[in-house]
Structure formats: C-alpha cells, structure tokens
Amino acid sequence: MFFTIPTVMTWTRIVAIPLIVGVFYAPLDPATCNLIAAIMFMVFAATDWLDGFLARKLNQTSAFGAFLDPVADKFLVCASLLVLVHLQRADVFVALIIIGREIAISALREWMAQIGASKSVAVHMLGKLKTTVQMVAIPFLLYDGRLFGSVDTSVWGTWLIWLAAVLTIWSMVYYLQKALPEIRARVAK
Predict the structure, then answer these.
(1) Which residue from 73, 59, 77 is spatially nearest to 5, judged by alpha carbons?
(2) Taking phi first (over 0 means left), then psi (-120 to 50 degrees means alpha), and beta for anything else, what does residue 148 get?
(3) In sequence order, what are the residues at sequence separation of 6 or more whose Cβ sits closer than 8 angstroms to the Cβ of residue 163?
(4) pLDDT tens digit string along 57-79?
(5) Which residues, in sequence order, are CB contacts of 22 under 8 Å at separation 6+?
(6) What is the pTM of this model?
C-alpha cells in the first residue's frame, strides 16, 4: 500500500514544501509569489481531506497511510509557518507554540501507542478545529493582500493564526489530560 492513489496524494503534501518555499525565490513580483504560494497551499492542503476520502472509498486504507497522513500535514504546516515567520507575516511565538505542540503531541501519541493506550489520545474535534483554523489562516497570510477588493487577508490571517495558537494550547491540554491517567498508572508500577 506504499503507492496507492491516496498515499501518493499524501506524498504530494511533502513534495509541496520545497515548491511553496521556492516560489518566494522565483524571479516574480511579490504579489504573484504570494498568490501562487497561497493557491499551492490550498490545493495541497485539500489533499488531506481527499486522500482520506479516497482511501475509504477505494478500500485502500493502510497502516502506512495512517502514519504518513498526519506527518505530511505537520510538515506542510510547519514549513509554511517558518516561511511566514521569515517573511515577517507571522509571529515567531505563534510558530513556536504550533510547532512545539505538534512535536509534543506526536511524541505523546507514539508513547501512548507503545504502552497500548493510543485510544486515550485519539484525534478529537478540538484538534480538527485547530487544524481547520490553521489551514485557513496560512493561505491568508501567504496571500498577504486584499481578497475581492475588501478582505484584508493579512489582518484576517493574523487573527486566525493567533486563534489557531490558542486552540493549539487548548487541544494540547485536552490530550495531556486524557493521557494523564495512563501516565500515572505506568509511573506507579
């Protein structure tokens, strides 16, 4: 199941990272770079939903796909955040919160899986909401202009990325609380 249609779509999110970064080094005017990067991010981010849908529809779900999917999402989001920090469109503190949480929760999930308690840190609606807000904020900040002549994507993106940071902390606390009984049980042994 290494090269099924859904898995290839997941791989495209990882391949997208140097493409999105590279756009800002292309000999184009900044507005064109912003537009291309925002569109690329949205297209590749949409594969997150589409690959899961196709995996279920085509009966091509796999343990490898289940592993790769969140890794690809995290790579795409973290790389985009680093680009935004570099372009001074996102605060480094926001990037540290979001990237730090991704590392901490990934490590927690790995450990919980090793001790047979992965269900205690299964994906929750709060984590999905956090991801959705990030996936809207990032292309707004990449675009960094006026959408439809009136929507200032820089302002909206900034508000949304800070909301994503708050949701990031909230979801991390939620997952840690869910894992705490298992952690206490293992420490007491």
Answers:
(1) 59
(2) left
(3) 133, 137
(4) 888 877 777 778 888 889 999 99
(5) none
(6) 0.87
147: left (phi over 0), alpha (psi -120 to 50) or beta: beta
Would residue 145 be called left, alpha or beta, if left means φ above 0 and alpha means ψ between -120 and 50 degrees?
beta
What local confidence, expressed as pLDDT, does residue 137 receive? 96
45 burial type by CB count under 10 A (0-12 exposed, 13-18 middle, 19+ buried)? buried
Write the burial class of residue 80 (CB in 10 Å: 0-12 exposed, 13-18 middle, 19+ buried): buried
Is residue 119 predicted with pLDDT exceeding 90?
no
Tokens 């959705």 correspond to what residue?
A: 132
- Local confidence band at 188 (pLDDT 50, 70, 90 cut-offs): low
Asked if pLDDT for residue 1 goes beyond 70, the answer is: no
Name residue, tokens 């929760």.
105
Tokens representing residue 182 in the block = 């298992």
pLDDT score at 29: 93
CB 51 within 8 Å of CB 69 = yes
Per the document, the length of the chain is 189
